UniProtKB/TrEMBL annotation:
Membrane keyword on record: yes
Pfam families the UniProt entry points to: Neur_chan_LBD
Subcellular compartments: Synaptic cell membrane
Coiled coil: none
Matching SUPFAM superfamilies: Nicotinic receptor ligand binding domain-like
Superkingdom, taxonomy of origin: Eukaryota
Name of the protein described by the UniProt record: ACH10-like protein
Statement: the UniProt record of this protein carries the keyword Plastid: no
Membrane topology: Multi-pass membrane protein
Species this protein is from: Mya arenaria
UniProt KW keywords: Cell membrane, Ion channel, Ion transport, Ligand-gated ion channel, Membrane, Receptor, Synapse, Transmembrane, Transport
Domain named Neurotransmitter-gated ion-channel ligand-binding: residues: 36-237
């Protein structure tokens, strides 16, 4: 009987040890696959060169604004905490998952990857470029790149003397600094801002009433091409 117990203990420990080794090997293989995939994707990759789209036409950038907090309003300048979502597809960032252990996606530092040169017009004559090199991009095997930079936005909101309950309208406008719609076009993820993560109690003096988003194509006097502008409009109610 003691021999039987010792045997069970021995083989039980051995079985557990084999499971632990399998887990370690699995993690090691995953690391190797990620390392191999990163090297393959970055081989001769030029982050300063705009990629080709999958269909050979303009690169379509799907964008959205996630409103997190209404920080404050100072001299008609509204400060917001937001996350700007940008998703596009690049032909030179595709791979076959079966060649890298079934990996369907990888996360890489955003400073390694080409990104759209989107700028934000604050309505007060200033332009802010969307950049946050500390965040990762997520790339899937079909070449879709997803980037979610956190951005503290400032936008001009015109209003007179406010009374309790008054509503004002503000705008955030995003556009490519250099690309016309022949090379880069903007598409909306939704026809409104994402407010599912909004901290409604952070600023008791301003309450969000509604949001709306649309994309317009503008032609400037200098150039025959059109340029896409994504405008996010939102109404706020003042609470004294």
């Amino acid at each position: 009987m003691p021999v039987l117990v010792a045997s069970e203990l021995f083989f039980g420990n051995l079985s557990r040890r084999q499971n632990e080794l399998q887990i370690v090997c699995s993690k090691s293989e995953t690391y190797k696959n990620r390392h191999h995939l990163r090297d393959d994707l970055m081989y001769k990759y030029e982050k300063d060169v705009m990629p080709d789209s999958i269909d050979g036409n303009a690169v379509n950038v799907s964008i959205g604004v996630d409103l997190l907090r209404i920080i404050d309003m100072d001299n008609q300048i509204l400060t917001l905490d937001t996350v700007i979502t940008e998703i596009w597809q690049a032909d030179n960032l595709k791979w076959r998952p079966g060649h890298v252990g079934g990996l369907e996606e990888i996360r890489l530092p955003s400073d390694l990857i080409w990104k759209p040169d989107l700028a934000l017009a604050d309505g007060a004559g200033k332009t802010v470029f969307i950049k946050s090199e500390d965040t990762n991009v997520i790339i899937n095997s079909s070449g879709f790149v997803s980037w979610y930079p956190p951005v503290k936005t400032k936008t001009f909101c015109s209003y007179g003397e406010l009374q309790n309950g008054d509503e004002i309208e503000c705008h955030l406008t995003l556009y490519s600094w250099t690309h016309s719609t022949s090379t880069l076009d903007l598409k909306l993820q939704a026809d409104e801002m994402d407010t599912s993560n909004l901290d409604v109690d952070f600023n008791p003096h301003w309450k969000l009433v509604s949001t709306h988003a649309d994309v317009k194509h503008k032609v400037y006097s200098c150039c025959p091409e059109s340029y896409a502008q994504a405008s996010f409009t939102f109404r706020l109610r003042y609470v004294a």
